[in-house]
From TrEMBL:
<dbReference type="InterPro" id="IPR019904">
    <property type="entry name" value="Peroxiredoxin_OsmC"/>
</dbReference>
<dbReference type="InterPro" id="IPR052707">
    <property type="entry name" value="OsmC_Ohr_Peroxiredoxin"/>
</dbReference>
<dbReference type="InterPro" id="IPR015946">
    <property type="entry name" value="KH_dom-like_a/b"/>
</dbReference>
<dbReference type="GO" id="GO:0004601">
    <property type="term" value="F:peroxidase activity"/>
</dbReference>
<dbReference type="Pfam" id="PF02566">
    <property type="entry name" value="OsmC"/>
</dbReference>
<protein>
    <submittedName>
        <fullName>Osmotically inducible protein OsmC</fullName>
    </submittedName>
</protein>
<dbReference type="InterPro" id="IPR036102">
    <property type="entry name" value="OsmC/Ohrsf"/>
</dbReference>
<dbReference type="GO" id="GO:0006979">
    <property type="term" value="P:response to oxidative stress"/>
</dbReference>
<dbReference type="InterPro" id="IPR003718">
    <property type="entry name" value="OsmC/Ohr_fam"/>
</dbReference>
């Protein structure tokens, strides 16, 4: 029987959008608190300050990697290693989040290129975070290492 797991995060903010700032905390894992600001989101990434888009990229790359790893294992070709990046594009005007580019490189013994590409694309379509972000264009570049 499936069980629902709830993960929690929170953000505290002071000031207006442009000059204000805040901090986002990973409440469930207690792994940390990160500073957030409009400047880091819409102008220049400030070292030590994150953005909602960077956090979405982290979530998407982790989820996709888990999904793809499981699908490769179910195919009888478990990965030896996998590196995934998610580049989340944000337009500070009216566009908002305009796209996500997933890039994955994996070492997988015993799989041919066609099966690898098919499973990579299927993982993109079935990853729970991809499904949650279905309103955004998600591209994928997958390569065997």
């Amino acid at each position: 029987m499936a069980r629902t797991v709830v993960s929690n995060a929170s953000t505290a903010w002071t000031g207006d959008l442009i000059s204000g700032s805040g901090s986002t905390t990973l409440d469930t894992s207690k792994l940390g608190t990160m500073d957030v600001s409009w400047k880091a989101r819409a102008e220049d990434a400030e070292q030590g300050t994150t953005s909602p888009e960077e956090l979405i990229g982290a979530a998407h790359s982790a989820c996709y990697t888990m999904q793809f790893s499981n699908m490769l294992a179910e195919n009888g070709t478990p990965p030896t290693s996998m590196d995934t990046a998610a580049a989340v594009s944000f337009n500070a005007g009216e566009g908002g989040i305009t796209g996500i580019a997933l890039t994955v490189s994996a070492k997988v013994d015993g799989i041919d290129e066609a099966d690898f590409q098919r499973l990579a694309e299927e993982a993109k379509q079935t990853c729970p975070v991809s499904k949650a972000l279905a309103g955004v264009d998600i591209t994928l570049e997958a390569s065997l290492a």
